[in-house]
Specification:
Blueprint: H1 12-16, H2 22-32, H3 36-55, H4 64-72, H5 91-117, H6 122-146, E1 151-156, E2 162-168, E3 173-179, E4 188-196, E5 199-206, E6 210-213, E7 223-230, E8 243-246
Antiparallel strand pairs: 1-2, 2-3, 3-6, 4-5, 4-7, 7-8
Helix pairs in contact: 3-5, 5-6
Length: 249
Amino acid sequence: MKHHPSDVHTLAAAYALGALDADERQQFTAHLQECEACRQEAAEFEATAARLAAAASRTPPAALKPAVMAAVDDVRQSPPRVVATAPAASFLDALRRRAVPLALAASVAAAALGGVAAWQTQQGRELRDRARQAEQSLDTISTVLAAPDARTVHGKTANGALTTVVSSAGHNAAVFSTSGLPAPPAGTTYQLWLDHDGTMRPAGFVEGDGTVLIEGSPADAAAVGLTVEPAGGSPRPTTAPLLLLPLPA
């Protein structure tokens, strides 16, 4: 799908996810040479994609490989699949096709851990549940980043971290990314908030650099806040905000 020249600024997420065709990628690469804002946004999306891939990774337990190898002989091999030729996908279809597997790939390792162990131990069942939750969260993050109505705003916390909020009104969801966030003081955690008409509502936690789905509905929220709270979080902010970033319109 071709885009009007004025739309080139909206291609940063698709460029980072590898969802542009050859002509679009060539056009956007040339555009990056002269647009500092797009260079920064593309770099941040690429960093976010990399963090997504690592978000759910875990070191496999030592017992997993021998258990899998022992089960291989009893698994029937599937016949080859014949894929029918489909019409060329639109730009949005290509974007979603690439964005969703990005989130799924990030949780494959966690899901695999739950596979064999879930049949044997409670720990395995817990790993499988966490993998499913991670998959759902990462799928939503990827969907927001690839949404045609995605809006982006950047900010900086009082302790020097760079932040990005991407929101989609159509999906009623928003994601929060941070880079360079110092570790919180012992016994505390970073907590997110949504500002609804002056009322700050808890919106999840940030454990460090990376990307998280903002909990709750961003609809009608004016801003996203970040504070340092006691471990486990607070029902309302107890410290001055490190960040109060207006949500993108």
